[in-house]
Amino acid sequence: MDSQGQDGQRVVWTVVGTGIGPLLLAATKDGLVNVVFHATDAVRDRAVERLASRFGTEPVEAPDSPLLAEAIGQVEAYFAGERRAFDLPLDWSLISGFNRQVLRALADGVPYGSVVGYGDLAGRVGQPGAAQAVGMAMGANPLPVVVPCHRVVESGGGIGGFGGGLETKRKLLALEGVLPEPLF
């Protein structure tokens, strides 16, 4: 594969250290396309392979890429407690249909420091009985942290699941002041 796919799409990526461990950030000309938790060597390599397969191009490690600069800065500011909202162009091409609809509603309607129930979010997209499907959409989120799936919790007060692990979800909610600081 070359560095540009069939449609001329270029994918660049880097790994950023954060308070929840290394995050892989990947971008296209359309915006941030993927955020991957726990981006140690094996996880990072699998994520880059998935991106190569999806876009038909070999992603390029480019920590100094202008396509990534703003995302890196905003992620670092978020984890430093200096940013409450992300203002980035997003490439939604890794997700479609109901999942995309739910994630867009989440990104636009659940601000820093607040949470929403799975069922409540389902209602916001006109599918009040689709709490389980909302959970599946959260698990399929290609842009965690930036599209804040950690802010979706069980209606009975439980924390719910999380693709990055429950410890990571607790740390993100603590960073935003929703939960007390984790004791681990």
From TrEMBL:
TM region positions: none
Keywords: Cytoplasm, DNA damage, DNA repair, DNA-binding, Metal-binding, Methyltransferase, Phosphoprotein, Transferase, Zinc
Enzyme class name: transferase
PROSITE patterns noted in UniProt: MGMT (PS00374)
Keyword Cell inner membrane carried by entry: no
Domain Methylated-DNA-[protein]-cysteine S-methyltransferase DNA binding: residue ranges: 98-178
CDD domains for this protein: ATase
Gene3D superfamilies: Methylated DNA-protein cysteine methyltransferase domain, Winged helix-like DNA-binding domain superfamily/Winged helix DNA-binding domain
Keyword Phosphoprotein listed: yes
Domain Methylguanine DNA methyltransferase ribonuclease-like: 11-91
E.C. no: 2.1.1.63
Catalysed reaction equations from the record: a 6-O-methyl-2'-deoxyguanosine in DNA + L-cysteinyl-[protein] = S-methyl-L-cysteinyl-[protein] + a 2'-deoxyguanosine in DNA; a 4-O-methyl-thymidine in DNA + L-cysteinyl-[protein] = a thymidine in DNA + S-methyl-L-cysteinyl-[protein]
Protein purpose: Involved in the cellular defense against the biological effects of O6-methylguanine (O6-MeG) and O4-methylthymine (O4-MeT) in DNA. Repairs the methylated nucleobase in DNA by stoichiometrically transferring the methyl group to a cysteine residue in the enzyme. This is a suicide reaction: the enzyme is irreversibly inactivated.
Extra remark: This enzyme catalyzes only one turnover and therefore is not strictly catalytic. According to one definition, an enzyme is a biocatalyst that acts repeatedly and over many reaction cycles.
PANTHER family membership: METHYLATED-DNA--PROTEIN-CYSTEINE METHYLTRANSFERASE (PTHR46460)
Family statement: Belongs to the MGMT family.
Protein's recorded name: Methylated-DNA--protein-cysteine methyltransferase
Organism: Streptomyces dubilierae
Lineage of producing organism: Bacteria, Bacillati, Actinomycetota, Actinomycetes, Kitasatosporales
